[in-house]
Amino acid sequence: MRPGSINNQWWSIGLILILMLPLSPLLAQPSTPAELLDEANRVRSQNPDKLDQLLAQVKPHVDSLSETQQANFEYLSAYNTAIHGQPQLAISDLEQLIQRIESNKDGAGQQLQRVSIRAKGTIVNLLANSKVDDWYRGLELIEELHQLVEPLSSDDQLFQMAYINTAIFYNHLEQYSLGLPYARAVTKANTSIRLQCFAYRLMLEAQLALGQLSVDSAEFSEGKAVCEQANEELPVQIFNGHQAKVYIDQQQYSQAIALLNQNLPVVESIGSKALISVFNSLLAKAYLETGALNQARTHAQKTLGLLEDYGNTESRIRAYEVLYQIARQRNQPAQALNYYEQYAQANQTYLDDIHARNMAYQLAVHKATQQQNKIELLNKENTLLRTRQILAQTEAENTRFAVLFLILAVLVLGLWLYKNHTTQKRLKALAERDSLTEISNRRHLLQAAKYALEYCKNTRQILGIVVFDLDKFKSINDRFGHATGDWVLKQVVATCQKVSRQSDIFARIGGEEFCFVLPGCDKEHCQNFAEECRRALEEVVIEEDGHRIRVTASFGVTDTQSSGYNLDKLIGVADKAMYNAKNKGRNQVVVATAQPATA
């Protein structure tokens, strides 16, 4: 499971709409349409029912309002539509408002332009939580927003909100390195304490996902102090959850338990099931690592109970993993297998969602680049047409220049096609390859293995599976750092590739877990191949800071004669054999016993 934030879509819409602009002055008894409109702007995030009433009172008198007030009324109406669960309709209304303002740029005053900026920021926030087809529009609006607020002072809240919306958008797309600078800039700006609290929330979310936080990071104490001053208890507890996660990642389990137990009653009083489940799942993980299995089981089961109506969150995955480990340690194989299957399914779904977001972002960027290329090509074609009209006055000159510009157009088009082709190849490689080792990833393995199995089944050929996991790899990361661990993984891949065939499918399917799919090989050949890999890995010598690192692995082997042609079963049987090798002392090959064959 990758490091990540307590990422809930529901808060990003709600809080950012709350913070769209400074609140209007409090009006004791609003009576005129203008005063009612100001009151609606003031209460819009605090009392949705009152907002409905105020907008209904203003609506009959819209014609008596100024042009800017009418634009504000349309903005608040679209805002009201969004918070009542119709974001797509709200986006459509806001787009129409922006179009009307920008169609009359010469006549639109500064206040109308600010309404347009405000509407674009709200659309960006709504698009961050919508279908991926709309993310391209989000990227367009971000660029427009930054162009519009560039002339403004960095102390202007519209400027700051453009940065906040940008950070929300990138964080939601898992592009944390892009969103982090914008959130950090707002934390250092001269702004309201409430907006600063929200900026810290986005910044810490991105830093946690990027692995930039330690338990002593100043951002934790700074963010908590700011949000406490703003009377915002929810983000304070989210920061405590982040800090506990870092404690666990750094194996400081007792500190994590103390922090979580101290604040769990406060979180339960807030009533956020998502955050309560985060605290319980982290407690389950910390208790497991300290050997307190009963407490770990209790908190893991609480987590699953809270998340019955939620999807595959990190908390659910963490809870299933803890229950699986407890069942293993208590020698309850049936329960362990059940929890492992649920953990694997939830984890794979979660990773697929992250992969889909990354791919969607890459496709949106690619679409933007493609659109820009089309615009450039159209500009060149327009230039060519104008040139032809001028050159038509002289027949000889017309022919010569027409040929010249046609060649230029062909070159530009060829360059664009080449660039488009290379981009598609790069996106395909990103989708199929593990970025660290440059071998196949789990997704590509499953696709390729499915075709190989179908072919072998139709041609009555045998197919073998070899799964192996590096022994005590975590200690290498802990002692020498992740950079050394990454280098070790690359050496393992290079070593195994030397003894494998070109037709074999080789993939990294987990942190330090790998899989070979060997068409045409029975268990005996697979065992020999696995033994050859094992011996080759034993001979790998790695020196780091005067220490010699010995790399070994445990292997599990099966084939279609023993386990049938079902891919999930083949991998599961080989994986179980690999764990048997671990339990027998590691650094060995275990061949799975015959299983009932399935289609």
Automatic annotation (TrEMBL):
Enzyme group, top EC level? transferase
Q: Where are the transmembrane segments?
A: 401-418
One GO MF term attached to the UniProt entry? diguanylate cyclase activity
Which keywords accompany this UniProt record?
Answer: Membrane, Transmembrane, Transmembrane helix
Catalysed conversion reaction: 2 GTP = 3',3'-c-di-GMP + 2 diphosphate
Could you tell me the EC number(s) of this protein?
Answer: 2.7.7.65
User: Which cofactors does it use?
Assistant: Mg(2+)
Q: Identify the InterPro entries for this entry.
A: Diguanylate_Cyclase, GGDEF_dom, Nucleotide_cyclase, Rev_trsase/Diguanyl_cyclase, TPR-like_helical_dom_sf
GO terms in the biological process aspect are: cell adhesion involved in single-species biofilm formation; negative regulation of bacterial-type flagellum-dependent cell motility
Give every GGDEF domain span.
Answer: 461-594
| GO CC term, one of those recorded | plasma membrane
Q: Which domain of life is it from?
A: Bacteria
Q: What is this protein called?
A: diguanylate cyclase
